[in-house]
Amino acid sequence: MTDRAKIANVRSIVQQQQGKRLRRNRKETGRDMVPVNRTTQGRTNLSATDSVGLADKARADLANMEEAKLFSDRQLDLLGIVHPRSQNRPLVDAMRQLRTKLYSLKDEGNFSVLVSSVVPQGGGSFVALNLASTIAFDKAKTSLLVDANLHDPVIHKLLKLIGRDDSHGLLEYLEHPDLGVEHIVSPSGIPRMRVIPIGSHTEISAEHFTSARYKQLMQDIKDRYDNRYVVVDGPAMTTSADARILSDICDYTVLVLPYGGVTPGVLDGIVDEIDERKLAGIVINDQPS
Questions:
Q1: Distance of CA 78 to the CA centre of its chain
Q2: Does any domain span residue 8?
Q3: Alpha-carbon span 21 to 26, nearest angstrom
Q4: Is pLDDT of 40 > 50?
Q5: Are 282 and 10 in contact (CB under 8 A)?
Q6: 4 in a structural domain
Q7: Mean of all residue pLDDT scores within the chain
Q8: Quick check: 151 pLDDT over 50?
Q9: pLDDT at 13 over 50
Q10: Which CATH number do you get for residue 270?
Q11: Number of domains into which the chain is organized
């Protein structure tokens, strides 16, 4: 979460579809990019057991929603996280551009979007975090950032700073059916933004994300509040099969690539593996002015 990811552009689904068709016909000659400047639900007749269970869930939900601590503007600046009063206007504008692009793809209702780097350490987590933060600028909307990067998770570091590092996470939820959604959603230190950390785990397996429980979780957290937008921070596309699984489950996918760090062939190969109806755009990280 250092100030390392500089947003450069978003390419539309239409352009992605055109690119695929061109490659299939072997007529592609280049890429069109839009540059952005560099910047640093009821039941009745409940039994006593039911009542106790619901009460417990309600308490957990309230505890997790409580804003125990909020980051100051200065702390957010040091963490490289955008906020409404940020002095880093180019970065704020770039993230708003990405947010607006995603809103335009779905006229009604909320959505889930996977943000994934093309290669490791490409800035995907930074973009995911700042996209979720930017969505939360709007007081009529909330965001939920889900850490699904088994190989390089980062949200637990944010929670540690606000004294919530003992929070349950995604993997505990997937491994323990007795845990409910309300037990793994935590405050982030940012108003109207919630997070689900990766949680503790002893094994790494893509089977976590192919399970019916994970797919139901994604549906539940989107349906729980109609003004909640879900951002999933996924692993790198080139090093993990998890990313493609997550892309299939989410409504949209945003790719992040480091400036000059990915060849056209590698990028085209990744793009061709993603459903063209889901690919919302590409963000270039750390592009020079």
A1: 21
A2: no
A3: 8
A4: no
A5: yes
A6: no
A7: 81
A8: yes
A9: no
A10: 3.40.50.300
A11: 1
| Tokens of residue 279, six digits | 């690919």
pLDDT tens for 107-147 read 888 999 999 999 998 999 999 999 999 999 999 999 999 99
Residue 276 lies in a domain: yes
pTM score, whole prediction: 0.79
* Residue numbers of the domain that contains 158: 13-37+47-285
| pLDDT above 60: residue 54 | no
| pLDDT score of 196 | 97
Angle at 140 between CA 214 and CA 256, to 5 degrees: 50
Does some domain include residue 167? yes
Are residues 163 and 154 in contact, defined by beta-carbon separation less than 8 angstroms? no
